[in-house]
Input
Amino acid sequence: MKRIVASAIAAAALCAASSCGSGAGRWDDVDTVALAGTVIVEDELLRSPLGITASDDNIFVWNSGKSDTLIDMFDLGGHRIRSFLTKGNGENRMPYIEFARYSQLDSALIVGSSAFNGKLMNVTGLSGSAPQLVTRFSFSERIVGSPSDTVVPSSLVMQLENGAIVTANLTPGGMLALYSPQGRFRRFVQPYPDKSLLGDSVPDYALPNFFVMIGGTSPDGKHFATSSKLGDILAFGTATADSVDIVTYTGKPQKGINVVQSPDNYCRVEYNDSLEYFYPFGLALSNSHVYAVTGGIAATFNTGVASMKAGGGAPVYINVYDYEGNPVRVLRVPLGMCRIAVTPDDSRLFAFVESDDNGYQIISFDL
Output
């Protein structure tokens, strides 16, 4: 396990070795806690859900483009309050949502979409009848302090309480890019995995297609955490007075993908039985901890998803970390594969699941 500590402004980097199972730190002495939950939202109240996040008082479910409104809001007891954010283009609309996080700093939802790359978008006025979509921060077309073709922010734009900005980056320079509060590029953090893991024909520019970071900020804005869609890679960050301290962990190398380039420069992606998903549903963040549903070998994972929908499936294990990347505990939930959210104070965990018998459900767990 490779561990890298970095500072956004001071540009210090330290490396050390550690050993563990999936993800950062050591898990040998960490307790596993079995949880039992209660269904609080049934299928008839859910439409086409893709993900879930939580505030101190509410649960927010974001929907696919099959729904005319993209966000459904519930209280923590599962009672529906309202739907908002109209699908589409133009003022106060989004064509689709890729992720949502709650911000206590703004009493708003941070929402991301590749239609808004390089922009930090908030949905404000959550307690009112007509929440509004506003731009909290936007990069200029050319990133100040760097050539325009060197740094390309993704839809994941994270601004911490001290104003410092971290984005997932869509060029081969690095997986994460750090900026000043004014948007001036500082430097990259976490190099991309060696492209040879994907075969002999992968061009450098294609690496972000496989290893792009997903994640978000903690509700209080003091921390961030990201995981890679492929690859055993995690990053944890904490705002300091004038900087951001970042710890990154790289575990098992990605296997099971082979990219074959044809003579006319088209690429074909082939997968084999060694393909593994490490953090298949991304991360859930409280003010103190990071929660990650662990994955496994793809064939087993996909079988588990199918079994879960049929009413079975093996239990899911959720790794819990602090913001220095240290293991805290493991949660065992009897749900099969699921997407999760957690309240800012770590008091409750919510899981969004799907089954053939019951359709979509939201299940609540006391922590």
Q: What stands out?
A: Confidence is low (pLDDT under 50) at residues 1-22.
